[in-house]
Design goal:
The complex is a heterodimer of chains A (400) and B (261). Helix content of chain A is 69%, strand content 4%. Chain A is mainly alpha-helical and 400 residues long. Chain A has 2 domains: 115 residues, D-Maltodextrin-Binding Protein, domain 2; 219 residues, no CATH class. Chain A has a 4-stranded mixed β-sheet with strand order 2-1-3-4, with helices on both faces. In chain A, helix 10 crosses helix 16, helix 12 packs across helix 13 and helix 14 crosses helix 15. Chain A starts with a helix and ends with a helix. Chain B is α/β, with parallel strands linked by helices and 261 residues long. Chain B is built from 10 helices and 11 strands. Classes of the chains: A mainly alpha (400), B alpha/beta (261). At the A-B interface, helix 1 and helix 9 of A face helix 3, strand 7 and helix 4 of B.
Chain lengths: 400, 261
């Protein structure tokens, strides 16, 4: 078995595709892609925030203070227009003449003592996800409204702390019972599993194809079958190889992301990584990695069974391709709001591991359920390994 | 001594598998299965070379695969020096060297590593395998490409490596399935010389081939398999006598026609 294992590892280590999947992808390509994405996103946001929006204001003389605030806002530039009707203004915005129209009602009077709410209309393109114009306006209107509130209250003799007592009679002071770590875990925990589990699968898939179907395609399987070692040893040697590459991919990715995060964090003076790492204990980290072992065993045995059944490399890829999409289903289930780790979800393969990782990061894991998750995953892995071994004994599979 | 008695092997057909005209004519297709080998018997003494002849699809490869224990026969027996191979396939595998027609090598391993891997799987120690590989590489003139990866070798180099791999554990019986198919003249000669050297060393060799000149120059006995049955099993001289002028092609055709009647 160990001879098979060592030989498969030696051969895989000389394969560019495997090296790319196991080492290059997590160490270099993933961080570069994510880094570039972050850079592009930051640039897009920065340039959007620096953008100047042309606006028109109808009946500006009715609210000169507001008109002044708008005029001096760094992201707005006033232009003039003859239009006054909302529909005409909307069409002008669609035609690109300007970006925003603020319509102040003709009957609005800032200094009026009559207590009535005024309805203003703003017209702009609300489609972009980053609603910058909306945000700027919200702040401006809030400031302007506060000014009006203060003026109106002052006119009836309300000043100082009384203003707050009227405008905001109750203020809520939120104190979280959750540790910082729990918050961090809830937000990051699910994503950690979402990243690690598919990586384990990916790390297993190419080597499984190569040492299963690839062996058939190269014509080396028959010679291997007539060597004086049992087929169980043969398949276990191959299984261990696939398991190793799957775990190596996950481990290398974690180390790579940790390393890159630390580097970027220390260069940029951000201590998010340090905080995240200090929240997680060494034992928790080891438990997370330990959880991946039985899970990767499931992947390795299932993928090897499929691969050895296939007649060729291409046929194996056809089977394994759709499987890689299926992997995301139980992971997505674990990300759904309200889905929590309990005695039932502990029995759903992959979902249970994902939920467990989340709980481990949060620091709120129930050791009883953790044991059940590990036990159920190990049992499933054992069944699949037994199936893989028996699959390897069948002439119908080996000589298709 | 190797004795093969009434071997039979059938393969289940896949559901809905459609048969061609030629397959429908073949008596071996029965309902849901294909009886590749129905009744094959022959024997081989130490130092003898047996040539296995037969048309394509006659059952030669299946017979050799059963002999090498890659496939398990449905019926019959294979005895090596009186011991039942089917009862103890691991023991038989230690004593048989097999080179299949579709033999491949591990492309990313060198010639040495390919051979050494199988030597280790046969339980050879590092010192023993190094000595044996050195002997074989000298015999097959392989030292010049011992460190070259298989994916970078010519077909001749690959075949030499495959042969070295098949016999690295010094087997008591060597089984070769069409070892010269697709090879150039030089490499074919190397293979034939190697079979001759095995014969000189007293190692029995069973090989399937379509080349009658190889049979003529190397074989002591001939077995003709047709439609899964050993239609002829006898000495080379007896085989020649099947033809009026001693022509092996005519002899072969007479066996096939006789069987088809």
């Amino acid at each position: 078995m160990w001879q098979v294992y060592l030989k498969e590892l030696l051969e895989l280590s000389r394969d560019r595709k495997t090296l790319m999947f196991v080492i290059l992808l997590p160490v270099l390509i993933f961080p570069v892609i994510f880094g570039l994405l972050g850079l592009v996103a930051a640039n897009v946001t920065a340039s959007a925030q620096a953008e100047e929006h042309k606006y028109v204001i109808i009946n500006a003389d009715k609210a000169p203070a507001f008109a002044g605030q708008l005029f001096y806002h760094k992201n707005f530039k006033q232009v003039s227009t003859e239009l006054t009707e909302p529909e005409a203004l909307r069409q002008a915005i669609r035609d690109g003449q300007f970006d925003l129209a603020v319509i102040i009602p003709a009957d609005f009077a800032a200094g009026s003592t009559e207590l009535a709410q005024s309805q203003w209309t703003v017209i702009y393109n609300t489609a972009p996800v980053l609603d910058l114009i909306g945000n700027y306006l919200k702040d401006l209107v809030k400031d302007y409204s506060r000014q009006l509130q203060l003026a109106r209250l002052e006119s009836v003799g309300v000043t100082g702390k009384q203003v707050d007592a009227i405008l905001e009679p109750v203020q809520i002071n939120k104190v979280s019972s959750a540790e910082n770590r729990e918050n961090l875990g809830e937000k990051l925990g699910g994503w950690i599993a979402y990243l690690l589990v598919p990586l384990c699968f990916m790390g297993c898939s190419y080597p499984a194809i190569d040492i299963g179907a690839g062996e058939k395609e190269r014509g080396t399987l028959e010679t291997l079958l007539i060597c004086p070692i049992s087929r169980s040893s043969l398949v276990l040697g191959k299984f261990l190889t696939v398991l190793t590459t799957g775990l190596a991919t996950a481990l290398i990715t974690v180390l790579s992301f940790g390393g890159w995060g630390y580097l970027i964090g220390s260069l940029a003076g951000v201590d998010v990584v340090a905080k995240a790492m200090s929240a997680l204990g060494f034992a928790d980290l080891m438990l997370i990695l330990a959880m991946l072992i039985p899970l990767t065993m499931i992947f390795a045995s299932a993928l090897l069974s499929l691969s050895i059944y296939a007649r060729s490399f291409k046929e194996a890829q056809n089977y394994i391709g759709p499987m890689s999409i299926l992997v995301f289903v139980p992971l997505a289930l674990a990300m759904l709001p309200g889905v929590e780790l309990n005695w039932k979800t502990a029995l759903i393969p992959m979902t249970n591991i994902s939920l467990c990782i989340k709980e481990l990061v949060k620091g709120t894991i129930d050791m009883g359920i953790l044991t059940l998750v590990i036990a159920s995953t190990v049992v499933l892995a054992g069944v699949l390994i037994a199936f893989c071994v028996s699959w390897f004994q069948r002439e119908k599979v080996l000589f298709r | 001594m190797i004795e093969i008695r009434q071997l039979a092997k059938a393969f289940a057909l896949e559901k809905g598998q459609k048969l061609s005209e030629a397959e429908l004519q073949d008596v071996r297709y029965t309902g849901r299965s294909f009886c590749s080998v129905r009744d094959v018997s022959f024997n081989c003494e130490n130092g003898q070379v047996i040539g296995l002849l037969g048309p394509n699809g006659a059952g030669k490869t299946t017979t050799l695969r059963m002999l090498s224990t890659a496939l398990k026969p449905d019926a019959g027996a294979i005895l090596m020096d009186g011991k039942d191979v089917l009862r103890d396939p691991l023991l038989a595998r230690r004593r048989i060297g097999f080179l299949s027609s579709s033999t491949g090598l591990y492309g990313r391993l060198t010639a040495f590593e390919n051979v050494a891997y199988f030597a280790r799987l046969h339980g050879m120690t590092e010192a023993a395998l190094r000595q044996r590989i050195d002997e074989l590489f000298t015999l097959l003139d392989m030292h010049s490409f011992a460190s070259r990866r298989a994916e970078l070798m010519s077909s001749g180099m690959k075949q030499k490596t495959a042969i070295a791999r098949a016999v690295v554990h010094s087997p008591a019986l060597v089984v070769l399935d069409e070892p010269t198919t697709g090879l150039d003249i030089m490499t074919t000669q190397t293979v034939l010389d190697f079979i001759r050297s095995l014969k000189m060393a007293g190692t029995p060799v069973i090989f399937s081939t379509h080349h009658l000149d190889e049979v003529s120059s190397l074989c002591d006995r001939v077995v003709v398999i047709n439609q899964g049955i050993s239609a002829f099993n006898g000495s080379l001289a007896a085989f020649r006598q099947l033809s009026a002028d001693g022509d092996l092609r005519q002899a072969f055709m007479s066996v096939i026609k006789q069987e088809s009647v």
